[in-house]
Automatic annotation (TrEMBL):
Stretches of the chain forming a coiled coil according to its record: 58-85
PANTHER family attached to this UniProt entry: PHENYLALANINE--TRNA LIGASE, MITOCHONDRIAL, PHENYLALANYL-TRNA SYNTHETASE
Free-text comment on the cofactor: Binds 2 magnesium ions per tetramer.
Record Pfam families: Phe_tRNA-synt_N (PF02912), tRNA-synt_2d (PF01409)
Enzyme nomenclature, EC number: 6.1.1.20
Protein name: Phenylalanine--tRNA ligase alpha subunit
Length: 332
C-alpha cells in the first residue's frame, strides 16, 4: 500500500491530484484510516505491531504528500515569475498634471508686475452693493450702465459687480492713505455671449491714493507696466475719455506687440490696441469714501484680463476661455 501510494504521489504534477490522493489514503474514508479503524478487531498481540506499521505508513505518505505539495507550489511560482516579466522599457502611462488656466496665468503675471512696483493685492466680493458698485463711484442715477439690461441685479440694493472698481471704494473706506493696491477679480454684465463678449469676465483694477499723486505718475506707472507685460519697445497713447469715477479720464492704447505699431491683422491694421481705462480719482469718490480731496489725490486704472489674455495668446473667441475644453486648455 505504501509503495503504491508513494508511486502515485511521485507521478503527479498537479496540486489538485495530490490533494485527492491525500483524501484517498489519509481522508476520513481513506485506506489507511479504514485500516486503523479495523484495529479493534485484532488480537491484543497483533494490535501494537499492526498499529505501528500502519502509523509508519501513514507518516510516510503524509510526509511525501506535503513535500510534493511544496515542490509543486514552488514549480508553479517559478512558472508565474517567468510569465510575469516586467518590461521596464515600456513607455509609462503619462501622468495627467493640471495647469493654470490662461486667465489665472495673466492675472498672476500682471499682479506680479505691480507687486514689483510696491502694490499689494486687494479683493472684494462678487456680490456687491449698488452703493459700492455705482453710488460711491459717482455714477449718475441715470447712467446707462445702471440699467437692468446691463447689470445683473439681485434686488434693489445688491447686484453682481459690473467692474472691480467697488474694491477701490472698500479699500478707501477701510484704510488711511497712502493706498497702493491692485484688485483682480470676476465681473458680470448682462451681455449676450459672442466672440468678444461674455456675461462673466475679469478685470484688474489699480488704485493709488496719497499726497501729491499726479497724472504724470499714472502715466509713468502704466508705461512701466506695459513694457514689462508686452515688451520694452511698447509705447502708450492716452486718449481723453469719460468715466464717472475719474477726472480727467483716459483710455489707454498700446502699440501692437505683434507688429510693433506697423499695423497687422491683430491690431486690425491700426498699430494700436486699447487695453486700459484710467484717470485721476474724482474728488466726489474720495469724499464718498471718507478721504479729504483737499489733502489727498489719487489715480486709478482698470483693464480687461480676458482681452489681454486673448491678445497675448492670440485667442480669437472669448468663449473658448470658459468652455474648459482640455484640448484648448492644454495648449497654455
Ligand atoms: N472700471 C472701468 C471699466 O470697467 C475701468 C476703469 C477703472 C477706468 C479705473 C478708470 C479707472 O470700464
Amino acid at each position: 500500500l505504501q509503495e503504491a501510494a508513494l508511486n502515485e504521489i511521485k507521478d503527479t504534477s498537479s496540486i489538485e491530484v495530490v490533494e485527492s490522493l491525500r483524501v484517498k489514503y489519509l481522508g476520513k474514508k481513506g485506506e489507511i484510516t479504514s485500516i486503523l479503524k479495523e484495529m479493534g478487531k485484532l488480537s491484543a498481540e497483533e494490535r501494537p505491531v499492526i498499529g505501528q506499521v500502519a502509523n509508519k505508513v501513514r507518516e510516510a505518505i503524509e510526509e511525501n504528500i506535503s513535500s510534493k505539495k511544496e515542490e509543486l507550489k514552488s514549480i508553479e511560482k517559478q512558472k508565474q515569475l517567468a510569465e510575469e516579466v516586467i518590461d521596464v522599457t515600456m513607455p509609462a502611462k503619462p501622468a495627467l498634471v493640471g495647469k493654470k488656466h490662461p486667465i489665472s496665468q495673466i492675472i498672476d503675471e500682471v499682479s506680479e508686475i505691480f507687486m514689483g512696483m510696491g502694490f499689494s493685492i486687494a479683493q472684494g466680493p462678487e456680490v456687491e452693493t449698488v452703493a459700492n458698485n455705482f453710488d460711491a463711484l459717482n455714477a449718475p442715477k441715470d447712467h446707462p450702465s445702471r440699467d437692468m439690461s446691463d447689470t445683473f441685479y439681485i434686488n434693489s440694493e445688491l447686484l453682481l459687480r459690473t467692474q472691480t472698481s467697488p474694491v477701490q471704494v472698500r479699500t478707501m473706506k477701510n484704510q488711511e492713505p497712502p493706498i497702493k493696491i491692485v484688485s483682480p477679480g470676476r465681473c458680470f454684465r448682462f451681455d449676450s455671449p459672442d466672440a468678444t463678449h461674455s456675461p462673466m469676465f475679469h478685470q484688474i483694477e489699480g488704485l493709488v491714493v496719497g499726497k501729491d499723486i499726479t497724472m504724470a505718475q499714472l502715466k509713468g506707472t502704466l508705461n512701466m507696466f506695459v513694457k514689462k507685460l508686452f515688451g520694452e519697445e511698447t509705447k502708450t497713447k492716452f486718449r481723453p475719455h469719460n468715466f464717472p469715477f475719474t477726472e480727467p479720464s483716459a483710455e489707454v492704447d498700446v502699440t501692437c506687440f505683434k507688429c510693433n505699431g506697423a499695423g497687422c491683422p491683430m491690431c486690425k491694421g491700426e498699430g494700436w490696441i486699447e487695453i486700459l481705462g484710467a484717470g485721476m480719482v474724482h474728488p466726489n469718490v474720495l469724499r464718498n469714501c471718507g478721504i479729504d480731496p483737499e489733502v489727498y489725490s489719487g489715480f486709478a486704472f482698470g483693464m480687461g484680463v480676458d482681452r489681454i489674455t486673448m491678445l497675448k495668446y492670440e485667442i480669437d473667441d472669448i468663449r473658448l476661455l470658459f468652455e474648459n475644453d482640455m484640448r484648448f486648455l492644454n495648449q497654455f
